[in-house]
Amino acid sequence: MILGMEEANFALAALGPLSAVGAAIYTWIATQDKDNSQHIKAVETALSKALAEHASRLDKVETALTYMPSKDDMSELKGDVKALKESQIGVRSELSGIKASVDRMNEYLLNNR
């Protein structure tokens, strides 16, 4: 099957617009891929920034938790505060006795001078 001159011209004439349409489709697909790549890079950048901020916050929380007192420390502290209150009550009772003595001395000095 040998093509004649008319069929060859027809084939070439049809091939021109088809190749233009094919080039347009290829260009559209390539630019869409480029746009998608840029969008993916932007999303990756935003996610890495958010992840870095999250890691920073997590480090701060872990540091704060490291230095917080434990349950046993709080229990010991509660006992120490209770002992301090009891000691303060004892000091108050001693001070009330001293106050009474000082008041008597003051009254004596005011009345007998």
Outline the structure in words.
The longest helix has 63 residues, at 5-67. With 113 residues, the protein is an all-alpha fold. The mean pLDDT is 86. It contains two helices and no strands. The protein folds into two domains: 8-68; 69-113.
Shape: rod-shaped
Structurally, how many domains make up the residues? 2
- Could you give the order of the helices and strands? HH
**Content-based structural category:** mainly alpha
Count of beta strands = 0
Unreliable stretches (pLDDT < 50, length at least 5) are none
Can you give me a brief rundown of this structure?
This protein is 92% helix and 0% strand. The protein has 113 residues and is mostly helical. The longest helix has 63 residues.
Question: What is the fold's blueprint, element by element?
Answer:
Blueprint: H1 5-67, H2 71-111
Characteristic terms for this protein:
113 residues, mainly alpha, 2 helices, rod-shaped
